[in-house]
Design goal:
This protein has about 110 residues and is of the alpha/beta class. It contains three helices and five strands, in the order E-H-E-E-E-H-E-H. It has helices at about 5-15, 50-70, 90-105, and strands spanning about 1-5, 20, 25-30, 40-45, 75-85.
């Protein structure tokens, strides 16, 4: 899974993309030139919880993203996921449903 690393890359997606939201997650989606792999950014604020909780959420999101990339073949996007505070209460299955709902809203699946 390729990631967005630099602040400049994140700002480019924030400023030039469409956003889709659920109660627990926000998705920013920017279409980029063809033949480029998807690149992802994950943002979990310190307000969500301590480092252990934030890392656990990011690990879950990464695994869910990998599953959806295997199942549905879409390329040429920069995607940022932002976690909102109620996401802490979700288990893996509920988080997966939320991500699927965001992908459907965005028209990726």
């Amino acid at each position: 899974m390729e990631t967005l690393k630099k602040n400049k890359e994140f700002n480019n997606v924030y400023n030039n993309s469409n956003s889709f939201a659920t109660r627990h997650l926000v998705l920013y989606l920017l279409s980029v030139p063809e033949n480029e792999n998807n690149r992802y950014g994950l943002s979990v604020s310190k307000r969500i919880g301590n480092a252990v909780i934030r890392n656990k959420l990011k690990r879950r999101l990464r695994e869910i993203i990998r599953e959806f990339e295997k199942k549905y073949n879409f390329n040429s996007y920069h995607i940022i996921f932002i976690a909102r505070n109620p996401v802490v209460d979700l288990n893996y299955g509920q988080m997966k449903k939320d991500v699927k709902k965001l992908y459907k809203k965005a028209g990726l699946i």
